[in-house]
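Dear colleague,

Following up on Tuesday's group meeting, I ran the structure prediction for the two-component complex that the binding team flagged. I've pasted the input sequences exactly as they went in, so you can double-check that nothing got truncated or mislabelled along the way. The structure tokens for the whole assembly follow below. Feel free to forward this to whoever is handling the docking comparison.

Inputs:
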Amino acid sequence: MTDIKTYLREWAMPHVLCPGCAHGIVLRSFLEAVDQLQLEQDKVAMVAGIGCSSRLAGYADFCTLHGTHGRAPAFATGLKLARPELDVVVVTGDGDGLAIGGNHLIHAARRNIDITVMLLNNSIYGMTGGQAAPTTPQGAVASTTPSGNTEASFDACALLQGAGASFVARVLAANPIEMTKVMADAITHPGFSFIEVVSDCPEYFGRYNKAGGGAEMLVSLTSRDVAVAGPLAAKRFVNHVPSSEPPPGMDTGVLQREVRPIFSGIRGGDTDES
Amino acid sequence: MAEAQLVQGNEACALGAVAAGCNFYGGYPITPSSGIAEQMVRFLPGADGVFVQMEDEIASLAAVIGASLAGSKAMTATSGPGFSLMQEHIGYAVMAEVPCVIVNVMRGGPSTGMPTSPSQGDMMQARWGTHGDHSAIVLAPSSVGEVYELTVRAFNLAERFRTPVIVVYDEIVGHTRESVVLPDALEITDRVRAEGDPEEFRPKAITPNGVPPQAAFGDGYRFHVTGLAHDERGFPTEDSQVAGALLTRLHSKVDDHEDEIVDVETFMIDDADLAIFAYGIVGRSAREAVMEARASGIKAGLIRPRTVWPFPAEHIARAAEQVDTIIVAEMNLGQMIGEVERAAQGQAEIVGHLRADGEPMTPAHLLALITNVEADRKQP
């Protein structure tokens, strides 16, 4: 395996992420997937929106585009259509991808453009200081839901399945080996691929909801049993099921996979699509 | 030798874009600009180009920026409400220095306003619509032929200055069909490409002319692009000196080259007693009115900016020394008139003729106005 630092901009360190944040683990898993696939470094484009997750692009030594809030799939669409030979990967978050950018995400899925979207879900807006997101569980405390969130939350994978994404997967930031495997699978999938990476935000979500630090939050993700899981998993599903039943919706791995025509824009003759 | 063709304004825009080398169009339907998209989807596949209809105008300009970063010459077109949605990414393209062309076929506003009526209500939005301090290059054609010519020029200026360039014209220019002879040969400008060792490449290098050479994604240069204030490597910074220098450079790369950009048609101005300042379709009516006024013995002249931003202040100052009165005629309730007043510095009386009811300003209309102003001028 190549030294992972080959894919990092060490000159751009130190990074902006908080202690205990799992986003760095996610980035490493992604870089390992790129390495396993032996993608040409000059031909990888990482396109990001705004938020903690989106800052990852700045530290990865590829062609990196830090765009505007929620719009990464739209930037990526233009980029991929103009340069089909690029491996285009969007890194976004739950606020970026599901609130302000929800429209762009579902349309990229619908078109089946050949890009990969990694949505790092930490159930809250971290960069702006812990406000409620479309993924914040009902009842959870955020700076804008001090008495507990009353809104229903999105299930990102179900949303993308509904939008027609030809590859949908969910992975846990606590399982880096599985993450790398699924990321490599998504990148090689012909067409639009979506991965929800369940990450953490100890600084805001953890603190506001007494869900523990980074390590505890990650461990809690790996248990499907509310009784033994940490508070994060409990918060996440407490509104959906009686506590005696196992929580639903936490299926991991590849949830949807189909092959359908890839969108390459309206263009003449043969494309460079491989 | 080129032959005369019957061409619609929006079609001329698409023809000009392709002639300028445009090979990417991303857009969203909106009246009265949709004809541009409908032509681009016909032209681009045969011109090694790509067309995509996006989910909204925000996405349209995002896709255009993505394509431009990949090395394409890219454009979008829209009207009023869609232009408002594009403001976010106009600012991004300014900050990240991404060449692209945005065409705004103006319709009555605010809001959905009068979708099928002409207007010049977006002149200030074209200048100041996106947040933050920024320069702007905005062109305003007044005829079908000029739409073609200035669309080509918009691409050339975008490539030359690594910045978004906006073309504004109103619904009448967009939907008019007229006989035009499109030029055979065009001068085409391409962005200065990065050369040399990728390790040494600085995407936002400070260069003598203020415009850094540009690399495309996929060309072997790996670099970061952001809308955050950034250093020469394109990486975010909070260093006030670096951020301040960036903002200054983004301004000066345009403002210091106004002489390359500013383009004003003057007509019968040298001996004029009064001038009419008008742009776009109103400029065309005004020219006709000036000729008729001259025929009746009134020494009228025309100042018609084909580039409205940067504002041609020097041209106005010179004219203000020559004439007693400048009539500013525009299809809005007063947007460019403030700039004219500022540039005239009290040297001429400024009379506004402003209307925003969806009706055009006809030559007869403007001739009556000139006649009245002349009568007042003679009887102070």
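Chain B touches chain A through 50 residues (CB under 8 Å).

Cheers,
M.
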